[in-house]
């Protein structure tokens, strides 16, 4: 059975109180389906509230939006993989385009963060994707492969099997523009080939960038997509419950 993953990236929205209210509404509105997992990436301060609110539900999981690569120390403002794990997170985003473009993270930073996440018991969800200028120059696949190689080259097949890759074209994030399902599939095929060529077993590749309840079914009809990573359209619990229920498995 194809198992879809729906990931909600709340970015810098929804604190602990908001999170409790959100997840109460979401759980009331979402009729559990056995063919899908739903992961929430709240801000760090709301991880624990989210973990408590999804307990006893094996299909719901909470992750961090980012972790620093050192496990502990004098790094004011940062959280580490062991700290996120202690709060109940079991996954983390790595290299989201806002980390790369707003905070200046490099491929080398993503490599260290993926390694730190794995060492700390968190499943890394590595985000990759090209800018509009890179796409227009015909460099999409080269950029994505460079980002994969930069973050993952030193990992063996069993380790690669523990992580997820999210393809998010930068020009599609928060803009209302999507890649077509066919364009996305071309990139997904390349990502999957890169991972399986290094021994990954059945890697999961998600698509992200302006996914919403209207376009999700068309995107997921494309078999190369194993799920979606969603920002804006995940912020309203009723809309997110509807989105998660949509989309053929
Ligand atoms: P968006 O964000 O759905 O608001 O475009 C996606 C993301 O940044 O992960």
In terms of topology, how is this protein built?
Blueprint: E1 4-9, H1 16-29, E2 36-41, H2 47-53, E3 60-64, H3 81-86, E4 91-94, H4 97-101, H5 107-119, E5 123-128, H6 132-136, H7 140-152, H8 157-160, E6 164-167, H9 181-197, E7 204-208, H10 216-220, E8 227-230, H11 237-245
Parallel strand pairs: 1-2, 1-8, 2-3, 3-4, 4-5, 5-6, 6-7, 7-8
Helix pairs in contact: 1-2, 1-11, 5-7, 7-9
The structure holds 2-phosphoglycolic acid.
Please, could you describe this protein's structure?
The relative contact order is 0.15. It is built from 11 helices and 8 strands. It has helices at residues 16-29, 47-53, 81-86, 97-101, 107-119, 132-136, 140-152, 157-160, 181-197, 216-220, 237-245, and strands at 4-9, 36-41, 60-64, 91-94, 123-128, 164-167, 204-208, 227-230. With 249 residues, the protein is an alpha/beta fold. It has a single domain (4-243), classed as TIM Barrel. Bound molecules: 2-phosphoglycolic acid (PGA). 2-phosphoglycolic acid binds at residues 9, 168, 173-174, 208-211, 229-233. 2-phosphoglycolic acid (PGA) binds at residues 9, 168, 173-174, 208-211, 229-233.
Task: Tell me briefly what this model is.
By secondary structure, the protein is α/β, with parallel strands linked by helices. Helix content is 39%, strand content 16%.
